[in-house]
Specification:
alpha/beta; 4-stranded mixed β-sheet; flat
């Protein structure tokens, strides 16, 4: 709840239920009916959320059963405001090469809970044709005059010389036996997630190595809007089940609206055709690189993910959100659903709740030739 000026309550018809003071809420804030009143006596649809997607005064009728066991109702007025600053996700230092144009606004993510396109711009002088360091400021302003700023340094360097030598160090491989030794206990399960990128998989060897579950990509929603089936899904699903592995799914989505994500969930349900699963179906939306050009608010993004999960849940399966720690902390707000956390580190410091932790993308498991993602499920 925001700390802005509060509107006085308005309530009619009943003395049994009284409205709370300070009924002012942020745009898209998740508020349930019982949050509006001092008593939830007999409220019908007690777990329903109120509509906080319209700024200004809103009126709602709450149906309840009074002390005489009679159907009664009361009207409550609440106020919806937008006092939330846009977010700026930007590195404190950006490198560019002399003479090469750079779009500094698109070097980070500028997004707002209300506006689809907040006003984002960079203040300060710099010369892309001159080597040097330039102290600049990234500014974001929404239509309700909420403003955010972030200072950063632009480092203009000489054009990078091309070289045929490879001085990069290969990432350390994470052996499945080490993962089991470090993280397996009575409250955890050890798993992997796979797609057609893994090519041939010997699931018997995978199972024998200590893996207990697998999350398989069923497909992905292409940028052009089409849905593409992962050509190894059926094979992986059948073999994983035959070898006693618990199975869940994930779908890589490019959805830009609720209609697309709902259709993707519907496609999955139809493709499964009643196939049983042990674990959830994850919504995997990772196309943050071009977010500024998608014409999406943060609210839009979360509604897209929620529409997918709700559609999955309505079919008797369980939906789940997959995302990295960075975007879970800064852009997602779907805490009421299970979370699959991606954070490649020895010990995560993510403060939110998570059901599965994907802690490495360089796992080595017998039965899989290349690298594979490693996961821990918390029972």
């Amino acid at each position: 709840m925001c700390g802005c000026n509060k509107k006085e309550k308005e309530i009619t018809s009943s003395n049994e239920i009284t409205a709370k003071d300070n009924l002012t809420f942020e745009y898209a804030e998740k508020i349930k009916l019982y949050d509006l009143v001092n008593s939830d006596r007999g409220i019908t649809d007690n777990n329903d959320y109120i509509d906080t997607y319209k700024l200004g005064n809103n009126e709602i009728t709450i149906n309840y059963t009074n002390s005489k066991n009679e159907e009664d109702k009361v009207k409550v007025t609440y106020n919806v405001v937008d006092s939330t600053k846009p977010i700026i996700l930007l590195s404190s230092s950006i490198t560019a090469y002399k003479g090469k144009d750079i779009n500094l606004v698109n070097s980070g993510i500028c997004a707002d809970n209300y506006d689809k396109k907040p006003n984002c711009y960079v203040e300060g002088e710099y010369d892309i044709n001159k080597v040097g360091k330039y102290d600049l400021k990234y500014v974001a302003v929404d239509s309700n005059n909420n403003k955010n700023e972030k200072k950063f340094t632009l480092n203009v360097k000489e054009k990078k010389k091309t070289t045929t030598s490879n001085n990069s160090h290969p990432k350390k491989k994470y052996l499945i036996e080490d993962l089991i030794k470090e993280h397996k206990n009575d409250n955890t399960m050890i798993g992997i997630d796979v797609s057609s990128w893994q090519s041939d998989i010997d699931f018997k060897k995978v199972k024998d190595s200590g893996v207990e579950f697998v999350i398989i990509r069923i497909g992905f929603g292409h940028k052009k809007g089409e849905i593409i089936y992962d050509n190894r899904f059926s094979e992986y699903l059948k073999s994983a089940k035959e070898n006693g592995l618990r199975v869940g799914l994930y779908f890589y989505s490019y959805a830009k609206n609720v209609k697309e994500s709902s259709e993707q969930a519907k496609w999955i349900i139809e493709a499964l055709n009643g196939e049983s699963l042990d674990l959830p179906i994850a919504f995997d939306w990772e196309i943050f690189g071009g977010f500024n050009n998608y014409n999406l608010s943060l609210t839009d993004l979360n509604l897209i993910g929620e529409a997918f999960i709700k559609k999955i849940n309505s079919a008797g399966y369980e939906g789940m959100l997959y995302s990295s720690k960075y975007y879970l902390e800064n852009m997602w707000n779907l805490n009421e659903y299970k979370t699959w956390l991606a954070h490649y580190i020895d010990k995560t410091n993510y403060k939110g709740e998570y059901y599965i932790w994907q802690l490495s993308n360089t796992g080595k498991v017998n039965g899989i030739k290349g690298d594979v993602d490693l996961d821990i499920l918390y029972k």
